[in-house]
Amino acid sequence: MPSLKDLKNRIASVKATQKITKAMKMVAAAKLRRAQEAAEAARPYSQRMAAVLANIAQAVGADDSAPALMTGTGKDDTHLLVVCTAERGLCGGFNSQIARFARDHVRKLLAQGKTVKIICVGKKGFDILRREFASLIIDRVDLREVKKIGFENADRIGHKVIELFERGEFDVCTLFYSEFKSVISQIPTAQQLIPASAGPVAAESDSASAIYEYEPDAGAILTDLIPRNISVQIFRALLENVAGEMGAKMSAMDNATRNAGEMINKLTLNYNRQRQAQITKELIEIISGAEAL
Amino acid sequence: MADSFNFELVSPERLLLSAQVTEVVIPATEGEMTVMANHAPTMTTVKPGVVTVKTADGKTERFAVFGGFADILPTGCTLLAESAVHVDELDRTVLENRIDEARAELEGAIDEKKTRVEQFIAELTRLGEIVIPA
């Protein structure tokens, strides 16, 4: 049985922890709002980009002039996985969810006899994947210093991926990130970057039917467009990730705050009961002492 | 009064402008072009330069863009810029940082890429001269 003093100390420490988790929750909520705004602001660009890309892809068709980034190398022996996670923990199962998803994918690929290479974006994913696939990780990108993710961060990763592709280091590139559905649900997602999967072209019949003039020409635009599209996809993934991370952190911290509250209640009850018991005991001692006289 | 059409200037970070305009001057790779309403459908790449927008209510706005491409339809025009800023918000240090970055890239570049980067630097320098009086 802990003494009164022990209980008092524990209550104080749990209270301090609760204050911290509460503050973290509020910070996460504010950041979440900003992250959501950023993700929303980036949406028009990627949507237009997809529409334009589908349009040109249709114009160029299955022509031989289509760049390799689009058609792929014709093999799928070597896979490059770009795994995007958060830089910080304390956000529930967010990081491990993505890492687990990627890990299952890697195992599947390895079982099929493919070669796998991994690029880790974010520290947490690196920490988890390193345990099992340390030899497969060829690079890691650190975004810890970055306060607000800008397009240039994504662009740099995009360039890295394209450079590797041009050197023939891999055949298929897949991007792993967490799609932000809502504050309480983030879904780990895999998206193929190279070869670029042709989106739903048929859906936009009105703009697709327009006969475009291309300057300089469709092939040149496509060569310019696809690397940019890769960067845009990565950028979008990073933004979704930030929003997801903050959402997960918010609910994790909310839970922690609530748990701390429950614990405080229990401890306080216990404390009061013991205090009462001690008072009663002292009273009995005094009374029986007085009676003896 | 000329017909107006919808013009959108989008960068990956945000939608900078979406407005009814009468005239847009775009620095296309093949030379500057002015887009007005009912333009033939055109798709073109854009080099670093200044986009001049004349809105339907007669105001003129200028944006500095760093590459991208434009999608022009008779009913509207979308400019997807790699990065874009309003001319008033652009300052010399930002531009110089970009030029320095490109120079660093030039170090390791060879052949075709080298020419491309050199051209990019030249365009940036010119952009600086236009936008910011020395």
UniProtKB/TrEMBL annotation, chain A:
The keyword Coiled coil does not apply. It comes from the Bacteria. It holds the Pfam family ATP-synt. InterPro entries: ATP_synth_F1_ATPase_gsu, ATP_synth_F1_gsu, ATP_synth_F1_gsu_CS. GO terms for molecular function: ATP binding; hydrolase activity; proton-transporting ATP synthase activity, rotational mechanism. It comes from Sinorhizobium americanum. The gene is atpG. One of its GO terms (biological process) is proton motive force-driven plasma membrane ATP synthesis. One of its GO terms (cellular component) is proton-transporting ATP synthase complex. This is ATP synthase gamma chain. Belongs to the ATPase gamma chain family. F-type ATPases have 2 components, CF(1) - the catalytic core - and CF(0) - the membrane proton channel. CF(1) has five subunits: alpha(3), beta(3), gamma(1), delta(1), epsilon(1). CF(0) has three main subunits: a, b and c. Produces ATP from ADP in the presence of a proton gradient across the membrane. The gamma chain is believed to be important in regulating ATPase activity and the flow of protons through the CF(0) complex. Transmembrane segments: none annotated. Gene3D superfamilies: 3.40.1380.10, ATP synthase, gamma subunit, helix hairpin domain. It is found in: Cell membrane; Membrane; Thylakoid. It is a peripheral membrane protein. Keywords: ATP synthesis, Cell inner membrane, Cell membrane, CF(1), Hydrogen ion transport, Hydrolase, Ion transport, Membrane, Transport. CDD domains: F1-ATPase_gamma.
From TrEMBL, chain B:
GO terms for cellular component: endomembrane system; plasma membrane; proton-transporting ATP synthase complex. The keyword Phosphoprotein does not apply. Residues 5-84 form the ATP synthase F1 complex delta/epsilon subunit N-terminal domain. It is a peripheral membrane protein. Residues 92-123 form a coiled coil. GO terms for molecular function: ATP binding; proton-transporting ATP synthase activity, rotational mechanism. The keyword Cell membrane applies. Belongs to the ATPase epsilon chain family. Its main location: membrane. This is ATP synthase epsilon chain. It comes from Sinorhizobium americanum. F-type ATPases have 2 components, CF(1) - the catalytic core - and CF(0) - the membrane proton channel. CF(1) has five subunits: alpha(3), beta(3), gamma(1), delta(1), epsilon(1). CF(0) has three main subunits: a, b and c. Produces ATP from ADP in the presence of a proton gradient across the membrane. It is found in: Cell membrane; Endomembrane system. Keywords: ATP synthesis, Cell membrane, CF(1), Coiled coil, Hydrogen ion transport, Ion transport, Membrane, Transport.
